[in-house]
C-alpha cells in the first residue's frame, strides 16, 4: 500500500511575491481559512435534503448528459480530491490573491473541485458573500442551497473572474450528488492566472473590476 502523501499548498502571503510551500495546517494558521479537500455539509439534515433533491433530479431526467459524462470522466479526481499543479499568488489590494498555473495545462484538463460548506440559503434574508456558489439543485427547487467557501474551502476559492476566462465551472454528477469542478477550456501556459466567468448572479450587488491583460 502506497504511503499517503501530505497535500502541499503553494502560497504567497498578502503583499509578498515569493511562493512558499505550506502544509494544510500551516496554510490554515497563516490564512485563517479551514482547508476542505471535499464538500462539507452543514449538518446531516442538509446532506439528506441535498441528496433527496439530487435523486429527484436524476429521476426526472434533469441531470444532463454532459454533467453525467464529465462526472464519470473526472470521478477519480473528485474522489481523490485532486488539485492541479497551481499556486495562490498575491496580485494587489484590488484583486487580492489569484490562482496561477505552475505548469502548462491542456484544454479539458481538470483543475479541481470548488469545495466549501453546503448550507441552506434564503435569498431574501441571508447574507451572500463573494465566495458563495449556488448548488446545482437550487435551479430545480424553491429551497436553495449554496457552497460557502468564505471560511473553509480549497485552492479553487482563489480563482478570479474574467470575461476572457481560460477555465469554466461545471456542475457534474458523481457518486449520486452534484459537484462543481473547474476545468480548462483552452491551453494555459505556466505562470498564467486561472480564471472563469462568475456569471451574472454574482454581480448583482458588486461592481465589475476587469483584470488587466498583463495580470492574466
Summarize the helices and strands and which ones pair or pack:
Blueprint: E1 8-11, E2 20-23, H1 24-31, E3 34-35, E4 40-41, H2 44-59, H3 65-73, H4 75-79, E5 86-92, E6 96-101, E7 110-113, E8 117-121, E9 132-134, E10 144-148, E11 152-153, E12 160-161, E13 167-174, E14 177-184, E15 193-196
Parallel strand pairs: 1-5, 3-11, 4-8, 12-15
Antiparallel strand pairs: 1-2, 5-6, 6-15, 7-14, 8-10, 9-10, 13-14
Keywords:
216 residues; alpha/beta; Beta-clip-like; 4-stranded mixed β-sheet; 15 strands
Q: Which H/E pattern describes the elements? A: EEHEEHHHEEEEEEEEEEE
**Separation of termini?**
41 Å
Number of helices: 4
The fourth-level CATH homologous superfamily of the domain at 35-82 and 106-202 is SET domain
**In the CATH hierarchy, what is the class of the domain at 35-82 and 106-202?**
Mainly Beta
Word description of this protein:
With 216 residues, the chain is of the alpha/beta class. It has a domain at 35-82 and 106-202: SET domain (Beta-clip-like, Beta Complex). It contains four helices and 15 strands. The strands form four sheets. A six-stranded mixed β-sheet has the order 2-1-5-6-15-12. A four-stranded mixed β-sheet has the order 4-8-10-9. Strands 7-14-13 form a three-stranded antiparallel β-sheet. The radius of gyration is 17 Å and the shape is globular. The model has no long low-confidence stretch (mean pLDDT 90).
